[in-house]
């Protein structure tokens, strides 16, 4: 993991947040390459979930919402984690994580008293000092609170949304009334979410500010388990298609006692991170819980008129929810490899071409004219199609290594012969093989190789 973090910093994928002020713990800023990777992840999700389907529409709702939204959704009363302190060294932990790590046992849905009993009863050791004396576990609400307007009384309290999903539920009727959607249909959204996590960490895996890509897929009650199965498999296929190794992915179905009270079935797509298996994408059958609650709290009708049955129904909803930052971490971890090449270590990020921040680099062998002019022309011509990089500094070996490290699939070298034979050399990141091709054919060549 340290190697990945240091590469991310060195090459401009991810920086410590507010670094020049000593950093703000567990905040991260995406640098030029990280911002590209993030866009690519989001674009691919949007393409697969919205554009390639005829039954899903997009939405971009506000982060700040009416406080009643979070009462209806259950977040004010129940969006809690249990935390527990070591009496000896005062370190603080999430009770469920402590149990999962020590006993390899999933305890979602257990009460705070039950969690305390498990930790005390099993004499779980503090990971920091090894002591077994714990306080009782207690609940902690994860929502960030702030105030809207100039007064700070309770009437102006608003929350930063802890998930994007509720923005979709409260717009259910708006979408129904303005687009031609018919059951089953989905509403998708990408956006920031905020959770005052007790134990953020593992780089960008768990942060207090993060981004989610959520789909709420509304179905007829009765069809829900078929669609649950469909989206469950979709999550796995999505990452396999991006080249993520099969052995690093698994679908973990929640046991009945683990399920949230509103959920009929939940599965997590998990990835084998360097620090262990962790949730990447959660898929839940939330039944009609959310729409029913919002009807109760808002007094508005959020039903669907089923023409075949000639009656109003409250759809069930399947929710696949994926973190953008976690997806990026998966792509970085899975793509990272080190190889021995002629006695030296070559570091490569073997990204899928669609995910690679830079698709192709142009590297002139000399800064002399007219060679540079030719190289620049090739770079500018290709820039219309791909995100390109131009690099004319340092030895060619160093320049290749940099492109390998940032995951650029192809690098073009322009040499003095190119001025005569109108050919260039294209090097493949993975095989390191070089093809000499006509400059006139370079766009077709790349389209063939990259697949777009
Ligand atoms: P955990 O149990 O790990 O706290 P969760 O089950 O609460 O996670 P969900 O509410 O299902 O997570 O969130 C959906 C997705 O959003 C997760 O699968 C993950 O990819 C992402 N996510 C959730 N919390 C965070 C966070 N603090 N930082 C980064 N991504 C997150």
TrEMBL record:
It comes from the Bacteria. It catalyses: tRNA(Gly) + glycine + ATP = glycyl-tRNA(Gly) + AMP + diphosphate. It is an enzyme of class 6 (ligase). GO terms for biological process: diadenosine tetraphosphate biosynthetic process; glycyl-tRNA aminoacylation. Its EC number is 6.1.1.14. ATP binds at residues 195-197, 205-210, 279-280, 323-326. InterPro entries: aa-tRNA-synt_IIb (IPR002314), aa-tRNA-synth_II (IPR006195), aa-tRNA-synth_II/BPL/LPL (IPR045864), Anticodon-bd (IPR004154), Anticodon-bd_dom_sf (IPR036621), Gly-tRNA_synthase/POLG2 (IPR027031), Gly_tRNA_ligase_bac (IPR022961), GlyRS-like_core (IPR033731). Catalyzes the attachment of glycine to tRNA(Gly). This is Glycine--tRNA ligase. The lineage of its organism: Bacteria, Bacillati, Bacillota, Clostridia, Thermosediminibacterales. The gene is glyQS.
């Amino acid at each position: 993991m340290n190697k990945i973090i240091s590469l991310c910093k060195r090459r401009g994928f991810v920086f410590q947040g507010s670094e020049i002020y000593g950093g703000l713990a567990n905040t991260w800023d995406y640098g030029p390459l990280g911002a590209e990777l993030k866009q690519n992840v989001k674009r691919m999700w949007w393409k697969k979930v919205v554009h390639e389907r005829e039954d899903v529409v997009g939405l971009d709702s506000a982060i700040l919402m009416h406080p009643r939204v979070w009462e209806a959704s259950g977040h004010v009363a129940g969006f809690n984690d249990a935390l527990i302190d070591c009496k000896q060294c005062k370190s603080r932990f999430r009770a469920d994580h402590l149990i999962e790590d020590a006993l390899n046992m999933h305890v979602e849905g257990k009460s705070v008293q039950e969690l305390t009993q498990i930790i005390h009863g099993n004499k779980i050791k503090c990971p920091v000092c090894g002591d077994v004396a714990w306080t009782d576990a207690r609940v902690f609400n994860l929502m960030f609170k702030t105030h809207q307007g100039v007064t700070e009384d309770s009437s102006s309290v608003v929350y930063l949304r802890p998930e994007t999903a509720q923005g979709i539920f409260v717009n259910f009727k708006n979408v129904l009334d303005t687009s031609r959607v018919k059951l089953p249909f989905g509403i998708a959204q990408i956006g920031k979410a905020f959770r005052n996590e007790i134990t953020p960490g593992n780089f960008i895996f768990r942060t207090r500010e993060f981004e989610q890509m959520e789909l709420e897929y509304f179905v007829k009650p009765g069809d829900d388990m078929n669609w649950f199965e469909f989206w469950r498999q979709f999550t796995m296929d999505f990452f396999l298609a991006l080249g993520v190794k099969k052995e690093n992915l698994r679908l973990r179905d929640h046991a009945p006692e683990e399920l949230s009270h509103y959920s009929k079935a939940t599965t997590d797509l998990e990835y084998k991170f360097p620090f262990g298996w962790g949730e990447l994408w959660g898929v839940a059958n939330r039944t009609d819980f959310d729409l029913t609650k919002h009807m109760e709290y808002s007094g508005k009708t959020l039903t669907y008129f089923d023409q075949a049955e000639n009656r109003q129904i409250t759809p069930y909803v399947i929710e696949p929810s994926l973190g953008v930052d976690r997806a990026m971490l998966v792509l970085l971890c899975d793509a990272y490899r080190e190889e021995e090449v002629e006695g030296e270590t070559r570091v490569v990020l073997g990204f899928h071409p669609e995910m690679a921040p830079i698709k192709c680099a142009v590297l002139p062998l000399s800064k002399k004219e007219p060679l540079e002019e030719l190289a620049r022309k090739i770079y500018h011509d290709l820039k219309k199609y791909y995100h390109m990089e131009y690099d004319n500094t340092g030895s060619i070996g160093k320049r290749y290594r940099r492109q390998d490290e940032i995951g650029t699939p192809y690098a073009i070298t322009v040499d003095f012969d190119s001025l005569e034979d109108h050919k260039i050399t294209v090097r493949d990141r993975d095989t390191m093989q070089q093809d000499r091709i006509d400059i006139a054919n370079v766009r077709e060549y790349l389209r063939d190789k990259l697949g777009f």
